[in-house]
Amino acid sequence: MGKAILSGIIASMMISGQDEDQIYKPKKFIACVSREESGARIKKTFNDKVTLLVGENVKGVNEADIVFLCSKPQVAQSILTEEGMIQALENKPLISILAGVTISQLEKWVPLTTKIIRAMPNTPCMIREGMTVIGCRNDVKAEDKDFASWAFSTLGRVRFLDEKHFDAVTGLSGSGPAFACVVLESMADGGVMMGLPRDIAFELAAQALQGAARMVLQTGKHPSEIKDTVTTPAGCTIAGLLTMEDGKIRSTIARSIQEASNVASTLGKIQSKK
Ligand SMILES: NC(=O)C1=CN([C@@H]2O[C@H](COP(=O)(O)OP(=O)(O)OC[C@H]3O[C@@H](n4cnc5c(N)ncnc54)[C@H](OP(=O)(O)O)[C@@H]3O)[C@@H](O)[C@H]2O)C=CC1
Ligand SMILES: O=C(O)[C@@H]1CCC=N1
Protein backbone atom coordinates (compact mmCIF):
# COMPACT_ATOMS: atom_id res chain seq x y z
CA MET A 1 0.00 0.00 0.00
CA GLY A 2 2.89 2.34 0.73
CA LYS A 3 4.08 1.88 -2.84
CA ALA A 4 0.55 2.52 -4.14
CA ILE A 5 0.34 5.77 -2.17
CA LEU A 6 3.73 6.94 -3.43
CA SER A 7 2.85 6.00 -7.01
CA GLY A 8 -0.43 7.90 -6.89
CA ILE A 9 1.05 11.06 -5.43
CA ILE A 10 4.00 11.06 -7.84
CA ALA A 11 1.72 10.36 -10.83
CA SER A 12 -0.63 13.18 -9.87
CA MET A 13 2.30 15.58 -9.51
CA MET A 14 3.52 14.64 -12.96
CA ILE A 15 0.06 15.29 -14.43
CA SER A 16 -0.42 18.60 -12.62
CA GLY A 17 3.27 19.51 -12.57
CA GLN A 18 2.68 22.65 -14.60
CA ASP A 19 -0.32 23.69 -12.50
CA GLU A 20 0.62 26.87 -10.66
CA ASP A 21 -2.45 26.57 -8.41
CA GLN A 22 -1.39 23.25 -6.94
CA ILE A 23 -1.14 23.82 -3.17
CA TYR A 24 1.28 21.03 -2.28
CA LYS A 25 4.48 20.38 -4.13
CA PRO A 26 6.47 17.82 -2.15
CA LYS A 27 10.12 18.21 -3.14
CA LYS A 28 11.41 14.87 -2.01
CA PHE A 29 10.09 11.37 -1.29
CA ILE A 30 11.89 8.96 1.03
CA ALA A 31 10.89 5.27 1.23
CA CYS A 32 12.01 3.20 4.23
CA VAL A 33 12.00 -0.60 4.17
CA SER A 34 13.75 -3.26 6.24
CA ARG A 35 14.81 -5.79 3.58
CA GLU A 36 17.06 -5.46 0.52
CA GLU A 37 14.52 -7.38 -1.64
CA SER A 38 11.80 -4.79 -0.93
CA GLY A 39 14.34 -2.05 -1.57
CA ALA A 40 15.11 -3.53 -4.99
CA ARG A 41 11.39 -3.49 -5.85
CA ILE A 42 11.07 0.16 -4.80
CA LYS A 43 14.15 1.07 -6.84
CA LYS A 44 12.73 -0.73 -9.88
CA THR A 45 9.39 1.09 -9.61
CA PHE A 46 10.56 4.59 -8.75
CA ASN A 47 14.17 4.75 -9.89
CA ASP A 48 15.60 8.14 -8.83
CA LYS A 49 12.20 9.71 -8.01
CA VAL A 50 12.43 8.26 -4.50
CA THR A 51 15.29 8.16 -2.01
CA LEU A 52 15.48 4.62 -0.70
CA LEU A 53 16.60 3.77 2.84
CA VAL A 54 16.96 0.16 3.95
CA GLY A 55 17.02 -0.37 7.73
CA GLU A 56 17.32 3.38 8.38
CA ASN A 57 13.88 4.40 9.57
CA VAL A 58 15.11 7.02 12.03
CA LYS A 59 17.22 8.72 9.35
CA GLY A 60 14.22 8.72 7.00
CA VAL A 61 11.90 10.23 9.59
CA ASN A 62 14.54 12.81 10.58
CA GLU A 63 14.74 14.02 7.00
CA ALA A 64 10.95 14.09 6.47
CA ASP A 65 8.37 16.79 7.20
CA ILE A 66 5.44 14.38 7.00
CA VAL A 67 5.59 10.66 7.80
CA PHE A 68 3.39 7.87 6.42
CA LEU A 69 3.42 4.65 8.47
CA CYS A 70 2.59 1.77 6.10
CA SER A 71 4.09 -1.33 7.73
CA LYS A 72 2.09 -4.35 8.90
CA PRO A 73 0.17 -3.50 12.10
CA GLN A 74 2.20 -6.00 14.15
CA VAL A 75 5.52 -4.16 13.67
CA ALA A 76 4.27 -0.62 14.36
CA GLN A 77 5.46 -0.55 17.95
CA SER A 78 8.94 -1.81 17.14
CA ILE A 79 9.34 0.80 14.38
CA LEU A 80 8.00 3.71 16.43
CA THR A 81 10.08 2.84 19.47
CA GLU A 82 13.42 2.48 17.62
CA GLU A 83 16.19 4.41 19.30
CA GLY A 84 16.10 8.06 18.18
CA MET A 85 12.59 7.81 16.71
CA ILE A 86 10.98 9.94 19.43
CA GLN A 87 13.26 12.88 18.60
CA ALA A 88 12.81 12.32 14.86
CA LEU A 89 9.02 12.43 15.18
CA GLU A 90 8.81 15.63 17.29
CA ASN A 91 6.31 18.12 15.82
CA LYS A 92 5.63 16.02 12.74
CA PRO A 93 2.32 14.72 11.41
CA LEU A 94 2.23 10.91 11.34
CA ILE A 95 -0.26 9.39 8.91
CA SER A 96 -0.92 5.73 9.77
CA ILE A 97 -2.69 3.41 7.35
CA LEU A 98 -2.43 0.40 9.67
CA ALA A 99 -5.55 -1.69 10.11
CA GLY A 100 -6.63 -2.11 13.71
CA VAL A 101 -4.00 0.14 15.32
CA THR A 102 -5.84 2.92 17.12
CA ILE A 103 -4.83 6.55 17.61
CA SER A 104 -4.67 5.87 21.40
CA GLN A 105 -2.20 3.03 20.80
CA LEU A 106 -0.04 5.12 18.51
CA GLU A 107 -0.08 8.00 21.00
CA LYS A 108 1.64 5.78 23.56
CA TRP A 109 4.60 5.24 21.21
CA VAL A 110 5.17 8.76 19.82
CA PRO A 111 5.93 12.14 21.40
CA LEU A 112 3.05 14.39 22.49
CA THR A 113 3.92 16.86 19.74
CA THR A 114 3.35 14.28 16.99
CA LYS A 115 -0.07 14.75 15.45
CA ILE A 116 -1.55 11.42 14.44
CA ILE A 117 -3.85 11.01 11.47
CA ARG A 118 -5.39 7.62 10.78
CA ALA A 119 -6.26 6.67 7.22
CA MET A 120 -7.75 3.57 5.64
CA PRO A 121 -7.07 3.49 1.88
CA ASN A 122 -7.64 0.53 -0.45
CA THR A 123 -5.75 -1.11 -3.32
CA PRO A 124 -7.55 0.73 -6.17
CA CYS A 125 -5.42 3.69 -4.99
CA MET A 126 -2.83 2.03 -7.26
CA ILE A 127 -4.83 3.18 -10.28
CA ARG A 128 -6.09 6.35 -8.57
CA GLU A 129 -9.60 4.87 -8.13
CA GLY A 130 -9.20 4.34 -4.41
CA MET A 131 -11.36 5.13 -1.40
CA THR A 132 -9.67 6.51 1.68
CA VAL A 133 -11.31 7.28 4.99
CA ILE A 134 -9.41 9.65 7.27
CA GLY A 135 -9.86 10.18 11.00
CA CYS A 136 -8.04 12.15 13.69
CA ARG A 137 -8.47 13.89 17.02
CA ASN A 138 -9.94 17.39 17.10
CA ASP A 139 -6.61 18.97 18.03
CA VAL A 140 -4.95 18.04 14.73
CA LYS A 141 -4.25 21.26 12.82
CA ALA A 142 -6.38 22.05 9.77
CA GLU A 143 -3.24 22.29 7.63
CA ASP A 144 -2.24 18.71 8.52
CA LYS A 145 -5.75 17.43 7.80
CA ASP A 146 -5.75 19.34 4.53
CA PHE A 147 -2.44 17.77 3.53
CA ALA A 148 -3.70 14.24 4.29
CA SER A 149 -6.90 14.95 2.40
CA TRP A 150 -4.91 16.25 -0.60
CA ALA A 151 -2.47 13.32 -0.56
CA PHE A 152 -5.22 10.70 -0.61
CA SER A 153 -7.42 12.68 -3.01
CA THR A 154 -4.64 12.21 -5.59
CA LEU A 155 -5.47 8.48 -5.27
CA GLY A 156 -9.26 8.60 -5.48
CA ARG A 157 -12.13 9.53 -3.18
CA VAL A 158 -11.62 10.78 0.38
CA ARG A 159 -13.98 11.07 3.32
CA PHE A 160 -13.43 12.01 6.97
CA LEU A 161 -15.08 9.81 9.61
CA ASP A 162 -14.91 9.38 13.35
CA GLU A 163 -12.34 6.79 14.42
CA LYS A 164 -15.05 4.57 15.96
CA HIS A 165 -16.00 3.55 12.41
CA PHE A 166 -12.53 2.44 11.35
CA ASP A 167 -12.91 -1.32 11.84
CA ALA A 168 -16.11 -1.27 9.77
CA VAL A 169 -14.39 0.88 7.14
CA THR A 170 -11.49 -1.58 7.06
CA GLY A 171 -13.81 -4.59 6.62
CA LEU A 172 -15.91 -2.88 3.94
CA SER A 173 -13.65 -0.56 1.99
CA GLY A 174 -10.12 -1.75 2.87
CA SER A 175 -10.91 -5.43 2.25
CA GLY A 176 -13.72 -4.68 -0.22
CA PRO A 177 -11.69 -4.97 -3.44
CA ALA A 178 -10.91 -8.60 -2.54
CA PHE A 179 -14.60 -9.38 -1.95
CA ALA A 180 -15.56 -7.61 -5.19
CA CYS A 181 -13.00 -9.72 -7.06
CA VAL A 182 -14.59 -12.93 -5.76
CA VAL A 183 -17.97 -11.71 -7.05
CA LEU A 184 -16.34 -10.69 -10.35
CA GLU A 185 -14.61 -14.03 -10.76
CA SER A 186 -17.81 -15.94 -9.93
CA MET A 187 -19.80 -13.95 -12.48
CA ALA A 188 -17.11 -14.62 -15.09
CA ASP A 189 -17.16 -18.34 -14.23
CA GLY A 190 -20.88 -18.33 -15.02
CA GLY A 191 -20.13 -16.78 -18.40
CA VAL A 192 -17.42 -19.36 -19.07
CA MET A 193 -19.85 -22.13 -18.10
CA MET A 194 -22.18 -20.78 -20.75
CA GLY A 195 -19.44 -20.78 -23.40
CA LEU A 196 -17.76 -17.38 -23.23
CA PRO A 197 -13.96 -17.22 -23.52
CA ARG A 198 -12.41 -16.45 -20.10
CA ASP A 199 -10.85 -13.09 -21.08
CA ILE A 200 -14.13 -11.82 -22.51
CA ALA A 201 -16.01 -13.08 -19.44
CA PHE A 202 -13.65 -11.07 -17.20
CA GLU A 203 -14.13 -7.95 -19.30
CA LEU A 204 -17.92 -8.25 -19.24
CA ALA A 205 -18.06 -8.99 -15.52
CA ALA A 206 -15.67 -6.17 -14.62
CA GLN A 207 -17.47 -3.62 -16.74
CA ALA A 208 -20.90 -4.71 -15.40
CA LEU A 209 -19.65 -4.23 -11.84
CA GLN A 210 -17.93 -0.93 -12.65
CA GLY A 211 -20.99 0.35 -14.50
CA ALA A 212 -23.37 -0.56 -11.68
CA ALA A 213 -21.03 0.95 -9.07
CA ARG A 214 -20.66 4.17 -11.06
CA MET A 215 -24.47 4.41 -11.45
CA VAL A 216 -24.84 4.27 -7.65
CA LEU A 217 -22.09 6.89 -7.13
CA GLN A 218 -23.13 9.21 -9.93
CA THR A 219 -26.93 9.11 -9.63
CA GLY A 220 -27.16 8.64 -5.87
CA LYS A 221 -29.90 6.06 -6.55
CA HIS A 222 -30.52 3.18 -4.15
CA PRO A 223 -28.92 -0.01 -5.56
CA SER A 224 -32.28 -1.78 -5.45
CA GLU A 225 -33.75 0.86 -7.79
CA ILE A 226 -30.99 0.15 -10.30
CA LYS A 227 -31.52 -3.60 -9.84
CA ASP A 228 -35.27 -3.22 -10.46
CA THR A 229 -34.72 -1.32 -13.70
CA VAL A 230 -32.71 -4.29 -15.03
CA THR A 231 -35.38 -6.76 -14.00
CA THR A 232 -38.01 -7.37 -16.70
CA PRO A 233 -41.15 -9.16 -15.42
CA ALA A 234 -40.90 -12.88 -16.17
CA GLY A 235 -37.44 -12.21 -17.62
CA CYS A 236 -34.03 -13.74 -17.12
CA THR A 237 -32.71 -11.29 -14.48
CA ILE A 238 -35.38 -12.19 -11.91
CA ALA A 239 -34.59 -15.86 -12.53
CA GLY A 240 -30.93 -15.21 -11.71
CA LEU A 241 -31.77 -12.99 -8.73
CA LEU A 242 -33.95 -15.64 -7.10
CA THR A 243 -31.15 -18.18 -7.52
CA MET A 244 -28.78 -15.75 -5.77
CA GLU A 245 -31.26 -15.31 -2.91
CA ASP A 246 -31.59 -19.11 -2.58
CA GLY A 247 -27.82 -19.17 -2.04
CA LYS A 248 -28.11 -16.54 0.74
CA ILE A 249 -25.76 -14.29 -1.14
CA ARG A 250 -26.73 -11.12 0.77
CA SER A 251 -26.15 -12.47 4.25
CA THR A 252 -23.00 -14.30 3.10
CA ILE A 253 -21.47 -11.07 1.79
CA ALA A 254 -22.70 -8.92 4.67
CA ARG A 255 -21.39 -11.45 7.23
CA SER A 256 -18.04 -11.54 5.43
CA ILE A 257 -17.71 -7.81 6.02
CA GLN A 258 -18.81 -8.24 9.64
CA GLU A 259 -16.11 -10.91 10.09
CA ALA A 260 -13.42 -8.85 8.34
CA SER A 261 -14.29 -5.86 10.58
CA ASN A 262 -14.11 -8.01 13.70
CA VAL A 263 -10.71 -9.36 12.71
CA ALA A 264 -9.52 -5.84 11.79
CA SER A 265 -10.24 -4.76 15.37
CA THR A 266 -7.74 -7.36 16.63
CA LEU A 267 -4.86 -6.64 14.24
CA GLY A 268 -3.18 -3.98 16.37
CA LYS A 269 -3.36 -6.04 19.57
CA ILE A 270 -0.34 -8.25 18.85
CA GLN A 271 2.93 -6.36 18.57
CA SER A 272 6.14 -8.17 17.68
CA LYS A 273 9.18 -7.14 19.70
CA LYS A 274 11.30 -6.80 16.55
N1 LIG B 1 -3.20 -4.30 1.39
C1 LIG B 1 -4.27 -3.55 1.50
O1 LIG B 1 -5.21 -3.61 0.70
C2 LIG B 1 -4.36 -2.54 2.61
C3 LIG B 1 -3.43 -2.51 3.63
N2 LIG B 1 -3.55 -1.58 4.61
C4 LIG B 1 -2.55 -1.56 5.69
O2 LIG B 1 -1.32 -1.24 5.08
C5 LIG B 1 -0.27 -1.84 5.80
C6 LIG B 1 0.67 -2.55 4.86
O3 LIG B 1 -0.01 -3.58 4.21
P1 LIG B 1 0.54 -4.17 2.86
O4 LIG B 1 1.04 -3.08 1.99
O5 LIG B 1 -0.48 -5.10 2.37
O6 LIG B 1 1.82 -4.99 3.44
P2 LIG B 1 3.24 -5.27 2.80
O7 LIG B 1 3.84 -6.37 3.60
O8 LIG B 1 3.12 -5.41 1.34
O9 LIG B 1 4.06 -3.93 3.07
C7 LIG B 1 4.62 -3.64 4.31
C8 LIG B 1 5.81 -2.73 4.08
O10 LIG B 1 6.35 -2.40 5.37
C9 LIG B 1 7.77 -2.53 5.31
N3 LIG B 1 8.30 -2.85 6.63
C10 LIG B 1 8.01 -3.89 7.43
N4 LIG B 1 8.75 -3.86 8.55
C11 LIG B 1 9.52 -2.74 8.47
C12 LIG B 1 10.46 -2.14 9.33
N5 LIG B 1 10.78 -2.67 10.51
N6 LIG B 1 11.06 -1.00 8.92
C13 LIG B 1 10.75 -0.46 7.71
N7 LIG B 1 9.84 -0.98 6.87
C14 LIG B 1 9.24 -2.10 7.25
C15 LIG B 1 7.97 -3.68 4.36
O11 LIG B 1 9.28 -3.67 3.85
P3 LIG B 1 10.22 -4.94 4.15
O12 LIG B 1 9.59 -6.04 3.36
O13 LIG B 1 11.54 -4.51 3.64
O14 LIG B 1 10.20 -5.18 5.62
C16 LIG B 1 6.92 -3.39 3.28
O15 LIG B 1 7.43 -2.48 2.36
C17 LIG B 1 -0.88 -2.76 6.84
O16 LIG B 1 -0.81 -2.14 8.09
C18 LIG B 1 -2.32 -2.89 6.40
O17 LIG B 1 -3.19 -3.02 7.50
C19 LIG B 1 -4.51 -0.62 4.61
C20 LIG B 1 -5.43 -0.60 3.62
C21 LIG B 1 -5.49 -1.57 2.56
O1 LIG C 1 -6.09 -7.71 5.03
C1 LIG C 1 -5.63 -6.76 5.66
O2 LIG C 1 -5.27 -6.90 6.83
C2 LIG C 1 -5.50 -5.43 5.01
C3 LIG C 1 -6.25 -4.33 5.71
C4 LIG C 1 -7.35 -3.91 4.77
C5 LIG C 1 -7.08 -4.63 3.56
N1 LIG C 1 -6.07 -5.45 3.69
From TrEMBL:
One of its GO terms (biological process) is L-proline biosynthetic process. The keyword Transit peptide does not apply. Pfam families: F420_oxidored, P5CR_dimer. NADPH binds at N57. Residues 1-100 form the Pyrroline-5-carboxylate reductase catalytic N-terminal domain. Its EC number is 1.5.1.2. It comes from the Eukaryota. Pathway: Amino-acid biosynthesis; L-proline biosynthesis; L-proline from L-glutamate 5-semialdehyde: step 1/1. Residues 163-265 form the Pyrroline-5-carboxylate reductase dimerisation domain. Gene3D superfamilies: NAD(P)-binding Rossmann-like Domain, ProC C-terminal domain-like. It catalyses: L-proline + NADP(+) = (S)-1-pyrroline-5-carboxylate + NADPH + 2 H(+). GO terms for molecular function: pyrroline-5-carboxylate reductase activity. Keywords: Amino-acid biosynthesis, NADP, Oxidoreductase, Proline biosynthesis. Belongs to the pyrroline-5-carboxylate reductase family. This is Pyrroline-5-carboxylate reductase.
